[in-house]
Amino acid sequence: MKKTVNSLLTAVLLVIFLAAGFVIYQTNTASDEPPSILGYKTFIVLTGSMRPTLEPGDLVISKTPDQEESIGQGDVITYKNDQGVVATHRVIDVLTHDGQTVFQTQGDANNSPDNYVITMDQIYGSQITHIPKFGYVLNYAGSTAGIITLIVLPLIYLFFSEIVTKNRKKNKAAGKRGEEPSPTDTSL
Q1: What residues form the membrane-spanning segments (predicted)?
Q2: Selection from 158, 82, 166 nearest residue 119 by Cα
Q3: Which CATH number do you get for residue 37?
């Protein structure tokens, strides 16, 4: 039973370690384009402009749109406007401006549409789903305290756990041969 619990704990720590590594990679890329995996991107909601649909701290998972036709009225998109601000708002109208398809957006909690339109090349993704409050977890994971908690401490635990396990096996083998246990035996 103890071996099963230890194996399960090791597997959980490994998953946390890999997830934390991915988060750190995502938050530290130097590219102007948000990182993506197979066309999926994540964004953390920072304001209440999309309440009640999205709350601050929610994690939005978006898919890079294939073409203009894949985005329509009512879709929630994440984009970078002309001022360089990244926002996640709902498409309230699809228009044609100078022969180009543009999207009028508005936050669900806002009284009026955004004072700009968005072109296809400004769109990072169209919302697939969201995970409430998980953005706070990712922000923490990318912080110094998060790195220590989610990477350094689990690595230290795994290192010492392995030493203790090897030492116990060595002492069991020595006990079967009638030898004295090692003075570093922690099972006494």
Answers
A1: 7-25, 140-160
A2: 82
A3: 2.10.109.10
The residue range of the domain holding 4 is 1-30+143-188
Task: Give the pLDDT of residue 188.
Answer: 47
Question: Quick one: DSSP state of residue 182?
Answer: P
Q: How many CB atoms lie within 10 A of CB 34?
A: 17
Does residue 167 sit in the same domain as residue 113? no
Residue 1 and residue 92 share a domain = no
Angle, alpha carbons 156-162-164 (nearest 5°)? 100
Phi-psi group of 103: left, alpha or beta (phi > 0 → left; psi -120 to 50 → alpha; rest → beta) = beta
List the beta bridge partners of residue 80: 86
In terms of Cβ atoms closer than 10 Å to its own Cβ (0-12, 13-18, 19+), residue 125 is buried
Report how far residue 41's alpha carbon sits from residue 39's, in angstroms, rounded to the nearest whole number. Answer: 7
* Total structural domains within the chain: 2
Q: How confident is the model at residue 123 (pLDDT cuts 50, 70, 90)?
A: very high
Rounded to an integer, what distance in angstroms lies between the CA atom of residue 115 and that of residue 66? 26
Residue 158, burial from CB neighbour count under 10 angstroms (0-12, 13-18, 19+): middle
Cis peptide bond prior to 183, omega within 30° of 0: no
Q: Residue range 176-183: average pLDDT?
A: 64
